[in-house]
Amino acid sequence: MKIATFFFCFLFGIAYSHSQNKTQNFIQKNIESCRILINDSLSVYHIHENLYNNDIKLVLKTENVLTKECLNYDIADEHIKKADIFINPIIKINNNAVRDINLTDFTNLIPKKISALKKLNYTVILIELYSFSYSTIGSGYIYLCFKVGTKGNVIETKILELKEEMKTNRYNKIF
Prior knowledge:
Elements: H1 2-24, E1 26-30, E2 36-37, E3 43-51, E4 54-62, H2 77-85, E5 90-93, E6 96-98, E7 109-118, E8 122-131, E9 140-149, E10 154-162
Antiparallel strand pairs: 1-7, 2-3, 3-4, 4-5, 5-6, 7-8, 8-9, 9-10
């Protein structure tokens, strides 16, 4: 009986420590999104987060009018002007501009979550965007995925388009 109790406690301890290690290497934050008006039909979202010492800045143009307007915002007018000119989002990770993110087919994007998964040699950063559509079949989720090296440089990018929210256990399989 003592051996069975010891064995049970040993297995429980291993399972508990394994679950603790997983949660320590993962951060997820909900984005409290409010939009900054450019004109009657266009707005921008400005997101600035720091996850695992990776400074993430996103300026995203949208035609969405569903979310609330920002009363106070901390964004330079030059970023608002750039967002008005450019179709695609302005993304900087550790002050390095991320290029080749093409979201021209999605005009009603709403930022929902930002996540980071810390690996041994890199960090995976995900930005979840909800693509709102007035049609019944058009809504879905866009995931902007970035593989960031230990020196803070973006090694690889991916854009995933899904009909439903991605489960967090799938984050391990992106890169």
